[in-house]
Amino acid sequence: MGNCCRKPAKCAHASSTNFSSGRKKSHNNELKQDSTSSYLQASWGSFNNSLITSKVDTSVPSNLKSFSFSELKNATKNFRSETFLGEGGFGCVFKGWLDENTLAPTKPGTGIVVAVKRLKAESFQGHKEWLAEVNYLGQLRHGNLVKLIGYCAESENRLLVYEFMPKGSLECHLFRKRDLPLPWATRMRIAIDVARGLSFLHGLNANVIYRDLKASNILLDSDFNAKLSDFGLARDGPTGDNTHVSTRVVGTRGYAAPEYVATGHLTPKSDVYSFGVVLLELLSGRRAMDDERANFVEETLVDWAKPFLSDPRRVLRIMDTRLGGQYSKKGAQAAAALALQCLHTDPKNRPSMTEVLTALEKNISKDVPTSPSPTNLDNHRIKQLNSPRRTNTAITNLT
Known about the structure:
Layout: H1 37-50, E1 65-66, H2 69-75, E2 84-87, E3 91-98, E4 112-119, H3 124-137, E5 148-154, E6 157-163, H4 170-175, H5 184-203, E7 208-209, E8 218-220, E9 226-228, E10 235-236, E11 245-246, H6 258-263, E12 265-266, H7 268-284, H8 301-309, H9 329-342, H10 353-364, H11 379-386
Parallel strand pairs: 1-5
Antiparallel strand pairs: 2-3, 3-4, 4-6, 5-6, 7-10, 8-9, 11-12
């Protein structure tokens, strides 16, 4: 969740979206969204009549484990404070323990560690994101996407169970000043992992648009391999002759593409822009929007960095001083040039994520050891996601 860096001890797997209805404006710089209360109330009613009954809707991906609320209470020690990992718009995240073979709750310190995300009961928007998470992560498997293990849909309780990411979010490591800075090689490996995840999503026939790429939604395993989390805002991209998807504007200020903010027109190139912002954060060590700067001047990282990015002689001025100059100068210049391409104001002039990944692997990371490409995947489930017949009303109809 976006607040995890404010609570260093509770950093692992603390990630969630920032767009619950009725939340106060915070340092996360939420974008204003259209009112959807009537839609969400209708969705809530139909959901209670279908999925949250004695029988789970058969269209929910069968590879997911259906947990009872009692099981997850036991797995998290009744959601006690010592298992708390973080909080966001969706709700709270807790550490839990499950038997590796049966997935039954077990004693702390035994079995496998999981992250249990519990939806706030009053959050209509969170309910909608819960549906999206089940819909997408329940069908997709990729080495750079956080694995969804199961869910709970019992009475008024809605929870999600994920693999545990012990190093927490990129946000925590990149902006928490008292920790050792991430080395240059690790930063570029993370950029490549994120590009792989996005390339996979964009390469599906359904052309999935992630829509909420930011440092707090990039989680790290024990070896600092990066995975995308929080698919609550994801949605299918344009199909056929359509050039975009028209939707309400959601996301996080500083990361969202300007044309999407202005028009609500969503394309895969919207994710490319957000990736450019994250790449800038990796280079500079600065936040996309920093409310802690003097005089609270609303200048985005992109506004600040662009004058330097266009001049190879000045581009090294944006580099994170905490790196102490320990980085490849040519690699940094190449990464900055790539970021500038991703941040082009005209989305048509931005590269695709496949092109971004190629550039990172070939031109920037020659001196950076990378993790092997994740093996692809479960083709059967990819076909399910790609199929135009994927019309389960209980877990789709997302704006």
